[in-house]
Amino acid sequence: MGPVGGGRLGAPSKTIMDVLPGKVNSSAEIALRFVMSNPGVTAALSGMGSMDMVEENVGVASNEAPLTAEEIEQINSSMEENKRMADLYCTGCNYCMPCPQEVNIPLNFQLMNYHRIYGLTEYAKNEYAQIGKVNWMKGKNAEACIDCGICEEKCPQKLEIRKQLKETAEVLG
Ligand code: SF4
Ligand code: SF4
């Protein structure tokens, strides 16, 4: 499960915090409280990599006041809108693949969307640096594009893939 911003909970994002302005101290808090407000959830598992994260999660879990129905609706509608915006850039359909240069186009754009839509810039930069270096992120990053244009003929969204890959390399590379 990936609540609120695709589940990138450890990564800070002002964009996500601004969904409930002034009511949460971190994007991790909003995601954890969102999960725990669901009456169908009896336990939430959260990966923690430092004592600070443990303490933060304990603090959030100790807060017995659930999110209000209005706040949950605010989060849901905001995330729906973000998803709609992300799909305007790339739906991840994969029709443009394979790229002869092995550029993983949908993955590059997914990471760019984490930056552009969700404000998860540091997370996106770190992941971008891992493309092709770890098993679960195959292919190459945007810098391997040689501008051949083959992918653009296959994209149903008619995206300017080459232009957007250049932007991705500039911002995340
Ligand atoms: S334009 Fe770039 S990303 Fe698209 S197919 Fe050619 S090399 Fe691959
Ligand atoms: S074909 Fe277009 S919309 Fe689909 S994954 Fe490739 S770039 Fe994204």
Task: Give a written overview of the molecule.
With 173 residues, the chain is mainly α. The chain folds into two domains: 3-79, no CATH class; 90-172, no CATH class. The protein is built from nine helices and no strands. The protein has helices at 3-6, 14-17, 27-36, 51-62, 69-89, 105-116, 121-130, 150-154, 161-172. The longest helix is centred in the middle third of the chain and has 21 residues, at 69-89. It is elongated. The mean pLDDT is 88. The structure holds iron/sulfur cluster (2 copies). One iron/sulfur cluster binds at residues 90-96, 105-106, 109, 154-155, 157, 159, 161.
| Class by alpha and beta content | mainly alpha
Molecular shape: elongated
Largest sheet: none
The tally of domains stands at: 2
What's the alpha carbon Rg, rounded to whole Å? 18 Å
> What is the mean pLDDT?
88
- Give the amount of beta strand, in percent: under 5%
Which ligands, by name, code or SMILES, are bound?
iron/sulfur cluster
Uncertain segments of ≥5 residues (pLDDT<50)?
Answer: none
Straight-line distance between termini: 28 Å
Helix content: 40-55%
Which sequence of SSEs, written as H and E, runs from N to C? HHHHHHHHH
Q: How many DSSP H or I helices? A: 9
Please provide the count of β strands.
0
